[in-house]
Amino acid sequence: MAETFAVRHYDSIGSTNDEARRLAREGAPHGTVIHADEQRSGRGRLTRTWFSPPGNLYMSILLRIDTPPQRTAELGFVAALAVAETVETLLPKDRRALLKWPNDVLVENAKISGILLEMEDDAVILGIGLNVLEAPSGGKYKTTTLVANGGIASVDSARDILLDRLARFLSQWRTEGFAAIKAAWLERSYPIGEMIRINASGTPLEGRFSGLDDAGALLLETPEGIQKILAGDVVIAG
Ligand code: BTN
């Protein structure tokens, strides 16, 4: 199935994810995209806020995909790959995009993009924030922007490239399944065997990164054996 996206643009909005969820309840079709120049109450994962001044990309894509809810998390990995390719398309050749579980995209060890995956009835909302010009400072982790890394991009061109890459990875996911997406994601992530620290529900856990399971959970090798991490953050990599 070829993807067709219909973009609805807003100058300012509370949260593009909230608007996409509202539209999903009203029956908006697969491929509806909410794009805003700024968000007044942008939301991040784990009930965090998302810094959302003008100058960055904030968009939410409404997907109506007939898959069981337990496969929804796979779409976060699909989106992260699309963002990574977009970032590398817009940056000088020597800058690589690294993926950090579950769905962060980093450049030079600093976060450039985050993804918030939500469900509204049977619709999946893929919320993507990409720092083009502005990055928050003083937070818990390092952040960066496309422009700070020598990229020249307008927000609209970043959006269009991202939707194109998303269509390609969605198509790969539909035809080859999560195994292909997982393999592509692992190629862009920290190496298997690397020591990492996870903050899962406030409890720090250290161990060696052992890959992902077939549903996208992080596998952490600890002295007690392999632990499956379903939610949380990798706070140290490398
Ligand atoms: C994260 O915590 O890393 C996820 C951040 C997701 C931010 C995006 S910006 C567009 C969409 N609307 C929101 O309110 N959040 C997501």
How does this model look, in words?
α2 crosses α3 and α2 crosses α4. 25% of the residues lie in helices and 34% in strands. The chain folds into two domains: 182 residues, BirA Bifunctional Protein, domain 2 (2-Layer Sandwich), CATH 3.30.930; 43 residues, SH3 type barrels (Roll), CATH 2.30.30. It is of the alpha+beta class and 238 residues long. The strands form two sheets. It has a seven-stranded mixed beta sheet with strand order 1-2-3-7-6-5-4, with helices on both faces.
Counted by DSSP, the helix tally is 4
Ligand roster: biotin
CA(first)-CA(last) distance: 39 Å
Q: How can the largest sheet be summarized?
A: 7 strands, mixed
